[in-house]
Sequence to fold (498 residues):
Amino acid sequence: MDRFDQFSPEHVPFLDGRLKRMLIGGQWVEAASGKTFESRNPATGQLLATVAEGDSVDVDRAVTAARRAFNGPWSKFKPYERQQILLKLADLVERHFDELSLLDTLDMGAPISRTRANKRRALGMLRYYAGMATALHGETIENSLPGEIFSYTLKEPVGVVGAIIPWNGPLGASIWKIGPALATGCTVILKPAEEAPLTPLRLGELALEAGVPEGVINIVPGFGDTAGAALAAHPDVDKVAFTGSHITGQKIIQASAGNLKRVSLELGGKSPDIVFSDADLETAVPGAGMAVFANSGQICSAGTRLFVERRVYDEFVGQVAEFGRGLRVGNGLDPDTQIGPLISEQQLDRVTSYLSIGKQEGARALSGGSRITDGPLASGYFVPPTVFANVRDDMRIAQEEIFGPVISAIPFEDIDEVIQRANATTFGLGSGVWTKDVSKAHRLAKGIRAGSVWVNCYQAMDPAVPFGGYKMSGYGRESGLQQMEEYLNVKAVWIKTA
Ligand code: ADP
Fold:
């Protein structure tokens, strides 16, 4: 028996062999077409569950249910009542967290150590949104019109929200969409990624248990070009909140044009991570390493362009490669695993093709550089942490998002040059700066065109702090008050009092 058999799918009651149905109007239903698809463990290929496959007919049913709930009982819920539901959901997620994290690991491969460590964040988000439910308000605004005329604003829920999420963190991504919808009084149709639909469906069960009224949360698993596209184009959806690739983001904008629905987009990146020679290199080495290797590089804000001041370039990049070699790659169910598999064969092909492109372009792999073909991991989608040295800005591995554990390490000479080169990308999601010099840190924080700048850390996230992109990394923000605004309309009210 493997020492991680205790986490095998047989220990997850949710994976009971029965068809996983979709949630529409408070009922668990099959697809109107009767179609299904399979969800498999990317580490082993093992079948986890058969899932109802939604398409445009199911999306339409879900939108109808969401609209009915929005116009009906849900609109009568007081902020305090929505808050209580969110708090109850947080308690249920806390109680079932082991199961939810295990489902994330089984369905998308992330190490159990990682999915378990997300507990604080998941609960923090739900309780933050609960707090927000009673903290949102309009304003009274002093106007300058002659006479007695009074003006104020109302903040109103935007309406029916289509939420389309990727597979790289199913639980967190679901909460990031459902939470603000519940806090603001919207209703939602969640379309999980076809690669990892299971945790969102389990979360749907907990949402019903928490007292979310029928139709307020609907979950329609299915594929992007059918269910996803139908949701983005639906004339009765008021807003789409999307997280995924910039190519799909562009399609969503086009699909949204029919009814001019609101759109928020959290897309990809090619984020710069900049290391100065005066940095505390001992913390910068693992910091810069995990800025890319975490979740096998399948994080949109990963710091994949590693700019290192030339004086320390060879030494530093060598140490990051050594750090990468020391990470334990394996099945996500093994508690000692630090780096799990990639999500799919398609993703494996994509990452390995970039490994070949990098070598052809003249980059040198100091660690990793090819998929694992020996031993028990040979049959999974495993790529070890890879550090490419000798990278130039114009190489494809320095320009295009790889979405794998691949660092492109580039030397630089001075601060103005590195700001300009860091910004020479179509993306602008994350960025990192490693230095002990506070003035350099501030200059970089101002100079970099990206939605987040992490100084002497990377990937710090908090429910109260906005996250999102510049340029082709998208628009709109998640977390913080800014995210609430994405789910709210502002209405100006004028009252003549004399
Ligand atoms: P990734 O490369 O991270 O899988 P995608 O943008 O392809 O990114 O997928 C993210 C989400 O978008 C998934 O839920 C997917 O099903 C959905 N999706 C893909 N294509 C479309 C589309 N044309 N319209 C709407 N959603 C889509």
